[in-house]
Amino acid sequence: MDIFNKCENYSTARDAQAIGLYPYFIPLSENEGTETIYNGKRLIMCGSNNYLGLTTHPEVQKAAREAVTRFGTSCTGSRFLNGTLELHERLENELADWLQKDSVLIFSTGMQVNLGVISSLVGRKDYIILDRDDHASIVDGARLSYGDIIRFRHNDVLDLADKLSRLSPDKGKLLVVDGIYSMEGDIAPLPDIVPLCKDFGVRIMVDDAHAVGVLGKGQGTAAHFGLTGDIDLIMGTFSKSFASIGGYLAGDKEVIDYVKHHARSLIFSASIPGPCAAAALAALQVMKREPARIERVNKIAETMRTEYKRLGFDIGNSETPIIPIIIGDDTVTLKTWKMLFENGVFVNPILTPATPPGRQLLRTSYMATHTDSQLDRVLTIFEKVGKEFGLIH
Fold this sequence. Notes:
Elements: H1 5-9, H2 12-18, E1 30-31, E2 35-38, E3 41-45, H3 58-71, H4 86-99, E4 103-107, H5 110-121, E5 127-131, H6 136-145, E6 148-152, H7 157-165, E7 173-178, H8 190-200, E8 203-207, H9 221-225, E9 233-237, E10 247-251, H10 253-260, H11 264-267, H12 274-289, H13 291-311, E11 322-326, H14 330-342, E12 345-346, E13 348-350, E14 361-365, H15 372-388
Parallel strand pairs: 3-12, 5-6, 5-7, 7-8, 8-9
Antiparallel strand pairs: 1-2, 2-3, 4-10, 9-10, 11-14, 13-14
Helix pairs in contact: 3-12, 4-12, 5-6, 7-8
């Protein structure tokens, strides 16, 4: 049996390419934040996580350019060895202050945060408790941990209570939820989850990749609910509102120190280069100084949710700048995506198994820098395409 047989027999991508319905790995020639260019054609970008529009902010770009000159293009080593810069520690300190936590540790990506943190903290005799809609990086971290994985129905606090009541009180327990769920834009009900976790002796980690810069005046989901002191660990990424690349974990100093010396994804990965750290730090400073950006992206989200509902689209339970257009069929989702693309709107099709059957959707997301005229254009195109495929009437 040749292990490569599965590769030779895999035809899903080729079949989609053959009929012109392959939506992935699209090579963009330019990316100006709210607009992008593909094959010389300009599209309005509604598929990015650049929530505050900071990838094109002059201060962020200037900080990255200056850091290239000072630090070069790579650290060529891990944080554990030669890859820690003073700039990394400055960013960690400013993030800790912003997130109101004792300490912060920077990783190379958000994926590596979840892989390293969960697998280093959860052992063979522990429980790791997950929402069924948690991000793949959380699920993979749980698999690496060797702990017993307990999953509860999405945002279902009664199901969570039932699951927790069945666990041994003598084992360690870590619950991990997304702050904002990345596919449908709903928020974890932390005010209901926190008391349960306290009752059952469960530590809480919140994946705030999509929430920092959006919720709680930019400080994330815990701040949004006034529960920062009740959340043990907060992770996030620099690849969204921070307009860079990398990830971080915030929490008590002793926990951060333990993870720093046990997380394999940190110890055995090169650190983020100086220009990336400088860009993230500049983005944080802009975020603090320009709260109007946070207000703007949330106002846009409210307007777009209202307008999509008015047109008759199913947007699920979105509460944030991530707004799904739920279609419920793989083929129709791909055809709708293609027509939107051809008409000048870039969105992301989400198919099974990335979403449950019947919940196939177009993931749209918005930036503080989208103009009113761009948004009007997007709605006009969506109305046209929605009627074409019978999604609205």
